[in-house]
Amino acid sequence: MRTLTLRQPAVAAKPDRSFWLQDVGAEAATEPLAGSGRADLAIVGGGYTGLWTALRIRELAPEMRVVVLEADLCGSGASGRNGGQVHSWFAEIGHIGAVVGAEEARALCAASVDAITELEQLQKQGTIDMDLRLDGWLWTASSIAQEGAWESALAMSEAAGVDRFRPLTVEEIERRTGSSASYAGIVEPNAGTVQPAKLAIGLRDLALSRGVIIHERSPVIDIAAGPTCTLRTARGTLQAEKVVLAANAWLSGLPELRRHLYVVASQIIATAEVPETLDRIGWRDGASICDSQRQVLYYQRTPRGRVVFGRGSGNVAFRGDFGAKFNRSPDRGRDNLRELHRVYPALRGVPVEYDWAGPIDCVPEHVPVFDHLRHHPNIFFGMGFNGTGIAQTAVGGRILASLALERKDRWSESGLVGLARRKTMPPEPFRYLGARVVRSAIRRRNDAEIRNERPSALIRFLSRLAPGAGE
User: Fold this and answer.
1) Can you tell me the distance from the alpha carbon of 151 to that of 140, in angstroms, rounded to the nearest whole number?
2) pLDDT, tens only, 177-194
3) CA-to-CA distance for 93 and 175, rounded, in angstroms?
4) What is the pLDDT of residues 300-358, one digit of tens each?
5) Under a CB-based contact definition with an 8 Å cutoff, are residues 309 and 297 in contact?
């Protein structure tokens, strides 16, 4: 019997939690695992992926005893600290097609559209109050180098017979965003924003109401693998015939997965509430907005008039090992603030009331992967959403549920299943050192291109070494 040791989380102190979690006063609602227990299926991780998987399994096999073990409180990881942007997979149709082929890529993208509709229905029915606003997702350019970043996705979507995007005029962008920084782009109308913590907590409460057992504040220390697995926490043990690992970046603790996984940090800030200022500059709706930098900016106006402004900061973790330093950046979002003032000069002087950071699980293809561990056919995992997961994890939950239930259907037979076919990362320390060099080059390239200057040949060469990077 082999024991799998899991990476232990550095739980964020309350002041270091995301604005979203602090805004709703999020706390654990269930008791930690204590003593010995048993389940048909155990899920490690109480974020979007784990909760959607639990809900899908209860839909398909309501007789199964499903237990979720969450290290802190549900939504305390990436699910409760992201930028709150809801859009379909059609923006990534090229990346997905490279992994699964054009036909399945179209089907997976369509499934993500269905997931947005499912979120909308959950809100309309009063099941989950998540502040969902489907005012659109704007994919824009604010420099010459960013122009046309969406052309491939637009062409591939149209070739698939899908009219998902609409071009924007410069006047429309300025009217919709309240900023003249971006001047070209497209919009996905049936997309928008959400309050991420409300969604995570709502999924937790929905899962509990449907018979899922959840133990928060129960980090899994290790798993004794076998026909029946034993999951050990500080105060208890849980035996389960099957296990789903839905632990996001913390999966980097397993060497088999770390070969395909790298961990980067994303940094987000939230301003004070300034609704009158935002109204005055014309920024009134709940659209989500991205530019096309290599360290992409993503932002939204909250219903009460805060600006939530995020950026992939580029911090990397040696051996995927990250701790409390990934919960909050020492510079307190200084880089984000600089970019906020570039995009919104009218917000100079508006205080930043929240700043937070956190790890993101990334894979080289920028497309998630699902499978079981190589020597453990009853231990399944899903990872690599690369920061795009609010709608996409609902699809991932279907794949993990079908795998765990050993169903033969479109989900278990998806081209997203299969780790062996995926790219691997260089070994350490070359991975870490190379990542630091490449991320520095990307930062320098961003800074030059946003000024419409041409970076040096060396900077261009190094920045192209990033996983999934093009010219």
Assistant:
1) 11
2) 999 999 999 999 999 999
3) 28
4) 999 999 999 998 766 788 888 888 888 888 888 899 999 999 999 999 999 999 999 99
5) yes
369-373 and 352-362 beta bridge pairing: unpaired
Contact 245, 44 (CB under 8 A): yes
The SS3 of residue 113 is: helix
pTM passes above 0.85: yes
CA atoms of 74 and 71, how far apart (whole Å): 8
Q: Which tokens in the block code for residue 15?
A: 């002041």
User: What gap in Å lies between CA 398 and CA 222, rounded to an integer?
Assistant: 26
Q: Is the peptide bond before 429 cis (omega within 30 degrees of 0)?
A: yes
Q: Is 130 exposed, middle or buried (0-12, 13-18, 19+ CB in 10 A)?
A: buried
SS3 for 346-403 is: HHCCCCEEEEEEEEEEECCCCCCEEEEECCEEEEEEEECCCCCCCCHHHHHHHHHHHH
Alpha-helix runs per DSSP H in 178-219:
196-209
Cα distances (angstroms) measured from residue 137 to each of 187, 198, 300, 435, 448: 5, 20, 10, 30, 26
Closest CA to 391 of 23, 108, 126, 94: 108
Residues 465 and 196: their CA atoms lie apart, in Å, by 32
Q: Is the CA virtual torsion 243, 249, 254, 260 positive or negative? A: positive
Name the strand (E) or helix (H) holding 237. Answer: strand 236-245
How many C-beta atoms lie closer than 10 Å to residue 160's C-beta?
Answer: 18
Provide the β-strand partners of residue 138. 187, 289
